[in-house]
Amino acid sequence: MKKIEVNNLTKIFGSHPQQGLKRLIDGEQKENILAETGMTVGVNQASFSVEAGEFFVIMGLSGSGKSTLIRLVNRLIEPTSGEVLIDGQNIVEMGKNELIETRRKKLGMVFQQFGLFPHRTVLQNVAYGLEIQGVKKEERNKRAQRSIEDVGLHGYENSYPKELSGGMQQRVGLARALANDSDILLMDEAFSALDPLIRKEMQDELLNLQNKLGKTILFITHDLDEALKLGDRIAIMKNGEIVQVGTADEILENPANEYVSNFVKDVDRSKVLMASHVMKKPAVHMADKSGALAAVRKMEEVGASSIFVVDKDNNFKGLLTIDNAISAYKSSLPIENVLIEDIHEISPETPLNDLFSVAVEAKYPLAVVENGKLLGIVSRVSILSGLVLGKKEVTAP
Amino acid sequence: MNYFTLPLEEWTNRFVDDWLLPVTGEFFDSISEGLRTFVDGVTDLLIAAPPELLVLILIIIAWKFSGKGLALFALLGSLYLGSVDLWEAAMQTVAIVIVSTLISIIIGIPLGILAATNKTMATLVRPILDFMQTLPSFVYLIPAILLFGLGNVPAVIATFVFATPPAVRMTTLGIQQVPADVVEASKAFGSTKWQLLYKVQLPLALPSIMAGINQTMMLALSMAVIASMIGAPGLGSVVLEGISTVNVGLGLTGGLGIVVLAIIMDRITQGLVRNNKK
Asked: Taking the model in full, what pTM does it have?
């Protein structure tokens, strides 16, 4: 289902936008229009659509029109022509009340400079969207509280924005957008003002939230790495036009034109690929379910000389080699006693680049662990094949 | 340089005599009547109330909005006004200042809001404010007498003309200084224009608006003194009497009274500004 559909959307800044539009449709260059009429083409006949639950990133350098484009979607800027369908309804043709209603119910927005209300506490900021809808205080505070907890700001409800760090302020911005329970999040360079470490943390958390809440996200960035990391699909903008739309792989493999290929040529493929892309589902042994003999049988079954051991909640315990399993069986020890526990644990977001040096030293496959749970394993082979083949091949089932 | 003669003086007089006074006289009379009731009411109230009670209230307000220092100053100042027998004159001046400041605020702040949110309004309001601020006050004291007679009513009108511009300008400035991304955020979540105004713009513009009110009050005080020339009662007329009888002592006595009022009013309204910045 299409959540957002943008058709032929154009924005011309200037005194006679309709004249400019005519020239534009006649195929005139935007530089020409600027030189002859003094009007700036902000967005030039852009078309794209975003599926429900999709993470769609619009990437472009400054001046490419991306910030204008996202503001056309919720009509903070009036489009010159074209349509924007939100759940099939054209926002461009809506009356004032309908527009306000759509913004309240369907569109949340996060801003580069946070856009928090300095005179309101965190809780009052987050509850703002509900407050203007006339939701009762008790109810709106309850819902605001929930989204404050979603972004990990519990305990800061009564702080004022200026008392928080940049990263925390943007969490407030995110919580405010979530509190309305709108399906769509518009994020305008949401993490660009944050320092790199906080930024990475926020990106990861946003991905988690997206998994948990299933929002449709339209995300603007000037950072290609961020786009590749976050986007299910990416649109690349230049001079107000969308030059290519595709998945990260499609854009890296088949750049639509020279502009895009220049852009992506410096992208180190291994930097984009992460452990989660190349990890494989391991054969596992449930520690508390059965003993050493069962483990040996399992190893025989899958043809391996070692096996990863987890408990019934998939918490990672360690590695059991066949030799250790047999000696445990002989001396009738529980297998917990013979597990190799100093296995190299890595997070699913570890870039492949970093894995390379680790894998050279490691004797056994690397365990991909998140919050104590075993997600998969990465062997030396998959690191190397990942570097050669790219994301698509190695993740294909 | 006199290539042609511009009979502005004659035109103006003819306009005033033949049209303004006969046609609009009744209208201005009714305004005059309403204002007189208002100003006289406030004056009577301030004079009739026991001075001790007023001073107590003043000290509490001074303490709350400014601090111990001003509270003490208010006490000493009041004692001074009483000791030189100027309490009643001071209350007459205060009444004119209060009434004209109120009118300035009631008209000035909405006008400032309009000018901040509406371009046409802004281009319309700005030259009028420039005019009001730069025209020598004596120039409009004359028509004020013609339209409203002598006494405290023309004083209030002249003071209003003189003191309103900062209220308008500081309101406009305050609203325009609200960061664009904050306004954008408010709109993006579906605020109506009213919600944007009273939930975001006005609260954030409040320190600036308060500073405007402080300015308005100070200007009102200085004008209330000048307005003694058109028969406004109060400390100004004491000073005027001192000037016309070359009585230096009387002039100083009244002048100090004005200084006392100015300091108290200024510190209290500045306290309001500070309270709102926090």
From this structure: 0.73
Flag whether residue B29 sits within 8 Å of chain A, measured between CB atoms. Answer: no
Interface list for B 191-230 with A (CB within 8 A)? 191-192, 195, 199-200, 203-204
Which residues of A fall within a CB distance of 8 Å from B192?
100, 132
Tokens of A85: 């369908």
What is the number of residues in chain A?
A: 397
Residue closest to A241 by CA, chosen among A24, A33, A64: A64
In whole angstroms, give the CA distance from residue A54 to residue B176: 38
Q: Does A108 touch chain B (CB under 8 A)?
A: yes
Q: How far is A102 from chain B (nearest CA, A)?
A: 8
Average pLDDT (B259-278) is 85
Structure tokens at B129: 């404010």
Distances (CA, A) of A144 to A54, A149, B277: 24, 9, 26
Rg over CA atoms, chain A: 26
Chain B neighbors of A186, CB-CB under 8 A? 188
Please give the Cα distance from B255 to A266 (Å, whole number).
78
For residue B103, the distance in angstroms to the closest alpha carbon of chain A comes to 28
**In angstroms, what separates the C-alpha of B204 from chain A's closest C-alpha?**
7
A102-148 confidence digits (pLDDT tens): 999 999 999 998 999 999 999 999 999 999 999 999 999 999 999 89
Interface contact A113, partner B, CB < 8 A: yes
d(CA A314, CA A289): 12
Distance from CA of A138 to the nearest CA of B (A): 19
- Exposure of A223 in the CB half-sphere (CA atoms within 13 A): 17
| Residues on chain A touching B275 (C-beta within 8 angstroms) | none
A25 near B CB under 8 A: no
Contact B255, B266 (CB under 8 A): no
Residue A110's φ and ψ, nearest 5 degrees, are -120, 135
CB contact (8 A) between residue B188 and residue A103? yes
pLDDT in tens, chain A (397 residues): 789 999 999 999 888 888 888 888 888 888 888 888 888 888 988 999 999 989 999 998 888 889 999 999 999 999 999 999 999 899 999 999 999 999 999 999 999 989 999 999 999 999 999 999 999 999 999 999 998 988 888 899 999 999 998 889 999 999 999 998 888 999 999 898 888 888 888 898 899 888 888 899 999 998 888 888 888 999 999 888 898 999 888 888 788 888 888 777 766 555 567 777 777 777 777 766 567 777 888 788 777 778 888 887 778 888 888 888 888 888 877 777 778 877 778 888 777 777 777 777 777 778 888 888 888 888 777 777 766 665 444 443 3
What is the Cα–Cα distance from A183 to A251, expressed in whole angstroms? Answer: 27
B277 touches chain A (CB under 8 A): no
Residue A220 · residue A66 · CB < 8 Å: yes
Summarised one tens digit per residue, pLDDT across range A247-287 is 888 888 788 888 888 777 766 555 567 777 777 777 777 76
Q: Does A124 touch chain B (CB under 8 A)?
A: no
- CB-closest option in A71, A103, A111 to B190: A103
What residues of B are in contact with residue A119 (Cβ under 8 Å)? 203-204
Interface A:B, Cβ pairs < 8 A: 62
Q: With an 8 Å Cβ cutoff, is B181 touching chain A?
A: yes
- What six digits make up the tokens of B80? 């001074």
Question: Distances from the Cα of A290 to the Cαs of A286, A293, A296, A328, A375, in angstroms?
Answer: 7, 8, 11, 13, 21
Please provide the size of chain B in residues. Answer: 278
